[in-house]
């Protein structure tokens, strides 16, 4: 199964498209000739990206400045895309918090749940009926390797990502034989190819460069996996190592260690 063929009427919808994984995938899809709908909060940034991609690749790029954690704003987008020919959706938008759950800002935590989980759930549902009717489509939801294991001091994030992981993999099996591909992207640490030394975290300095996944390599590996309708893609050596460790290490050992690290990040 290949990715759906680009067409004048179809659009690839990418959330979290203003930066990171979402931006990298949007750029690759434009390079392949797909017309796009880019979704993020910062309209000025999206407009600059749209102009870049239209000029470079000759595709149509629509911009939707939407805070997907806001139910009313999300509904406006959902009502629109239900009526559009969306042949690819990349649910990449997400945020995280670190530190004890009881100490977190509740407004931020509920927004995190709405963005990381509810928006993925609702947007996937909004485009799925049309994909099934056309018997072609591709869904990629960005979960996380963090969704594989309970991590103290990252509780809300792992709640949302564990849900996205399981939801997407369940949907993958439901959609077998329908013509619609569904792949979970479960990355570990991902970063820019080059980071100024002044902006490097302790983790950036300790972990060798060759172990990191760049946004660009993550996008390339993800789209290859989606085109083959793989259930899950874990890009890059460090992410693969984390995925392997989380599947075999006892939770009673792994969780406290990771929780200590995440508390420091908070």
TrEMBL record:
GO terms for molecular function: oxidoreductase activity. Residues 10-193 form the Ketoreductase domain. Keywords: Oxidoreductase. Gene3D superfamilies: NAD(P)-binding Rossmann-like Domain. Pfam families: adh_short (PF00106). SUPFAM superfamilies: NAD(P)-binding Rossmann-fold domains (SSF51735). InterPro entries: KR_dom, NAD(P)-bd_dom_sf, SDR_fam. Signal peptide: none annotated. Belongs to the short-chain dehydrogenases/reductases (SDR) family. PANTHER family: ALCOHOL DEHYDROGENASE (PTHR42901:SF1). This is Ketoreductase domain-containing protein. It comes from Corynebacterium deserti GIMN1.010.
């Amino acid at each position: 199964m290949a990715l759906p063929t680009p067409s004048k009427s179809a659009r690839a919808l990418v959330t979290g498209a203003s930066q990171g994984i979402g931006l990298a995938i949007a750029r690759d899809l434009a390079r392949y000739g797909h017309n796009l709908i880019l979704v993020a909060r910062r309209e000025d940034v999206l407009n600059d990206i749209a102009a870049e991609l239209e000029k470079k690749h000759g595709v149509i790029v629509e911009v939707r400045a939407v805070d997907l954690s806001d139910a009313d704003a999300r509904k406006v987008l959902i009502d629109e895309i239900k009526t559009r020919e969306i042949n690819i959706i990349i649910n990449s938008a997400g945020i995280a918090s670190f530190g004890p759950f009881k100490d977190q800002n509740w407004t931020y935590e509920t927004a995190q749940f709405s963005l990381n989980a509810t928006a993925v759930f609702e947007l996937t549902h909004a485009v799925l009926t049309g994909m099934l009717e056309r018997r072609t489509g591709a869904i990629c939801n960005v979960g996380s390797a963090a969704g594989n294991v309970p991590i103290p001091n990252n509780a809300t994030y792992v709640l949302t990502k564990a849900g996205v992981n399981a939801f997407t993999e369940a949907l993958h099996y439901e959609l077998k034989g329908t013509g619609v591909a569904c792949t979970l992207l479960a990355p570990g640490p991902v970063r820019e190819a080059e980071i100024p030394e002044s902006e490097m975290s302790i983790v950036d300095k300790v972990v060798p460069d060759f172990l990191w996944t760049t946004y660009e390599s993550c996008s390339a590996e993800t789209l290859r996996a989606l085109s083959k309708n793989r259930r899950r893609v874990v890009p890059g050596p460090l992410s693969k190592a984390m995925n392997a460790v989380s599947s075999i290490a006892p939770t009673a050992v792994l969780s406290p260690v990771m929780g200590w690290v995440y508390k420091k990040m908070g």
